[in-house]
Amino acid sequence: MSILSRRISVAPIHLWLAFLGLLILIGLIGGFIVFTQGLVVTNLSDLVPWGLWITIDLSAIALSAGAFLLCAAVYLLGLKQFQPVAKTATFIGLIGYSMAVMTLLLDIGRPDRFWHSLIYWNTHSVLWEVTMCVVLYLTVLMLETTPIIGQASWMRSRWPNLSVWLSGLHRYAPYLAIVGLGLSMLHQSSLGAAYGTLKARPLWYNPGLSILFMVSAMAGGTSLTVLITMLVGRLSPKVRVNDQILGKLTIFVGWVLVGYLYFRFWEALSMSYTYQPGRTEGLSLLTKGPLALNFWVGEIILGAAIPIILLLVPKFRNNTTARMIALLMVVGGVIAYRWDVNISGLLVLLAYLPQEIATRYTVYRPSLIEFMAGVGVIAYGAMAITLGARYLNIVDHREFHETVVETKPDFAGTD
Amino acid sequence: MAKENVNRRDFLKVAALGATVLTGMRIANRTAASEATGSSPHQWVMVIDQAKCTGCGQCTLACRAHNDVPPDISWNRVIEMDDVGEKKVFIPRPCMHCEHAPCVDTCPVGASYYRPDGIVMMNYDRCIGCRYCEVACPFGARAFNWKAFTEPNPAVPTWGQPEVERRPRGVVEKCSFCYQRIDRGLALGLTPGVDNDATPACVVTCQVGARKFGDINDPDSEVSQILAETPYFRLREDLGVNPRVYYLPAREEVS
């Protein structure tokens, strides 16, 4: 009898964690092969030096953008009702940034020299600035997450003094929100600029990329935060979720997507209006070439157009399933956009010869090892968020009355 | 309320301290990276005559031997172009050693830098292998070491002996205008472009004399003379990167 009941209680979450554990194991095997044998095991080449992992890196950063937005909303604009969502977003941001660091370590040829980027500075490089943003904002996210760990129930009961000390960092939340806002906005747009400043690549070389990276990150980051909140609210019986707050955030996502489509439209029109070698061909890779499905369906229709309708029309927005599907589509659209930007610019070969008229293309398909390592990183993120929801209470809208103002929590002496 | 003020002051103190530390690191670092380009009396350039080049590819092989480049990497590619008249035309492509090099601009750790004599150099001990320079280079002049080069170099000894250390797996490499030959030659009192021992290996090995090398600051050098009287072009001049490799276009009368 006891065995049977135990077996039943083991079921869903443990199966999920075991599944993620398996994927992480596959990722570890992939990572081990990469570190021992080098990047020759990838399908990257001198023509396409950046591929799947860069897309995961860019997407993880973009989908972490909920953290700075919601922290800014709560601590700078004073919209305190969003405080419990900011907590969720901060934790997702921390996990997203750590995923990005992992893929970067996989992707660089000399991971043993990762510290070079901290001590040898070329302040002229956008990538230097991006590196600084990653490091500093990861630090901010760790500091912002510390009170979450401090307030976890097991921490309060077992180490009450440590709990008070960790929770006390919450006092600095407004300052961290300011620093985080600056670093994160700079980072999101700089990732676009890392491509947008390369004049050798006509498809990328425009100021629009910074804006599009920023705006799409705002939509994607908020979407993932709301989506995870809703998922945890549905799956965990202990968690209460305030649907009214989430509804407001989804309206925000809907309008940001309208802005995103607006910028994207003018960018595409400016790129297609007059023929320019490399640029026009690059764009046609997206509109009618091998990336057309990704572009039209992934980015535009499912990634933006349909979610705009689902999120802005109250009838659909108030339908939980429709809303969750829409948010998932936005997340997918942001990832599709990152993939398309990176790969479309690289598939068009550089034309530097005087008589070169016809534009030539190359191809790239990630290798099995790239998929294995990439899946491992994503599974790590999913597992961290699952465990966070279970043991750190990152999604819970009941307790939002008690925080914000308090500095020395009353529960210090209760244990 | 008072507590709040103290916190704010503390925060500002920490911020100020951080800014000071960062500025200090910036100044300490500046000395290490690029000395101002153009500060040397010599400014090296290469002139490649397309009318003479036969596309034999010996320059690529000599380059592989002298710089110990693996067989799957070419610091110096010879690319076939369209015909002029009856003759096939080739364009050998070393690193352009741009005056405003996108690779130097973009390298996050300053592993690509300008030498005072204009050569765009790689610090292989500093490179982290992010490949941003490869993405940024307009000329595809950079190659990444996807795997370790451990085998014997097939170009050695037929095409020469290695003069520099092999690059490890995981870093980007490229043509250096054979800086090691220039530096050693100058130390011996030789003149790069005139004395073979001080001149890049590809220039020395070229059987038809399609490559010339020398100091553009010296008006009497062969390269200065040629560029003064012959029409030339450079690759992607529209980008404004100002390459130090000049091409003399194929002309029907020479062929």
Task: Provide a brief overview of the structure.
The complex is a heterodimer of chains A (415) and B (255). Chain A is mainly α and 415 residues long. Chain A has helices at residues 2-37, 52-62, 66-75, 83-107, 116-119, 126-150, 153-158, 160-168, 173-196, 208-235, 243-272, 279-287, 292-312, 314-317, 320-347, 368-391.
What does this structure look like?
- The complex is a heterodimer of chains A (415) and B (255).
- By secondary structure, chain A is mostly helical.
- Chain A has one domain: Formate dehydrogenase/DMSO reductase fold (Up-down Bundle), CATH 1.20.1630.
- Chain A is 71% helix and 0% strand.
- Chain A contains 16 helices and no strands.
- The longest helix of chain A is centred in the first third of the chain and has 36 residues, at 2-37.
- Residues 400-415 of chain A have low confidence and may be disordered.
- By secondary structure, chain B is an alpha+beta fold.
- Chain B folds into two domains: 1-32; 33-248, Alpha-Beta Plaits (2-Layer Sandwich).
- Chain B contains seven helices and nine strands.
- Chain B has helices at 2-30, 58-66, 102-106, 132-136, 179-187, 201-205, 222-229, and strands spanning 44-49, 77-80, 90-93, 112-114, 120-122, 143-144, 172-173, 211-215, 245-248.
- In chain B, the strands form four sheets. Chain B has a three-stranded mixed beta sheet with strand order 8-1-9. In chain B, strands 2-3 form a two-stranded antiparallel ribbon.
- In chain B, strand 4 (112-114) and strand 5 (120-122) form a beta hairpin.
- Chain B is globular and about 80 Å long.
- Chains A and B meet through helix 5 and helix 6 of A and helix 1, helix 3, helix 4 and strand 6 of B.
